[in-house]
Write a structure and sequence with these properties.
This protein is mainly α. The chain is built from 17 helices and four strands. The chain has a four-stranded mixed β-sheet. A hairpin with a 3-residue loop joins strand 3 and strand 4.
Amino acid sequence: MKRFFLLSGLALVLLSCNNQEATPDVSHIKLELAVQHFEDAFFSIDTNKLEASLKTLEQNYPGFTTDFLSNILELMPQREAADLKSFYRAYQPLYQSSTAIFKKQSEELNAVKNGLQLVKYYFPGYALPKKLITFVGPINSFATIITEDAIAIGLQLFMGKDHPLYTSEQGQMLYPAYVSRKFEPAYIPVNAMNAIVMDLYPGQHFGKPLIAQMVELGKKIYLTDHLLPATADSLIIGYQQKQLDACYANEKNIWAFFVQNDMLYKTDPMLIREYVTDGPFTNALGKDSPGNIGQFVGWQIVKKWAAKNKGVSMDSLMKKDPVQLFEESRYKPG
């Protein structure tokens, strides 16, 4: 197998602002989005009057209280009171520290709101969430959830990459550094829009050839990129900036690696997993490379196709057969 190693220390200057297309004017799109801080209400309950407190919580947060207790905390009826009190005590300090971080995150919340306006612009028939709910859940719980009428953000996974919750031995067992480095508040809009994109296009691509899976990943990044036009590319794709710089500088070599090793139409799950799942780096491309290199390649293919097919709706692009999209793109980085 031929190998092409990504280079470090590149003298490459790239624009950190993502797509260069004109951002649609969405000022006319009215957005009804109530921001609710469920964590404030939950960590203010009286655990000595649990039944009455939970009843009030359900009245104030109908639907989500049940989701939180049953699906996020995963409480069993026979141990609900004991386990809830245990969680309440254990996570009270984390909640207290979260208040200092997230009550100031107006920039992130505004990015989510603008992203939802762009969702409505590209997909007029999509039912937007009416509420943005923040909560503090267990460390091994969800970062972002789409409910029937809300998008919910788990603040416990956005406390900053150096938070002791993640750097502890238990935290690193759950989330290695290449994962926890993305537990920054700046990733809140990206996670929110990724959740919307997955809700719009949940497609299953298992069993499809590598090129199809790379293009499908590229489509989702392309869409998220357009929903967050002011967000840096490195945040959109989840790479460190130096990794993204190296990918662009070595785009020709990366593509040659897949082509010359005749990998594009392979369907072996073990082979494919190496290139379309997250990791500290891509083994075949060296330690300066990012994991999930396939999403970068897929993204470049989609951008090439979209540039040739201006005016095609975002929905048509997302539903386009991935292999056909690749072949029509005639992608070949120079």
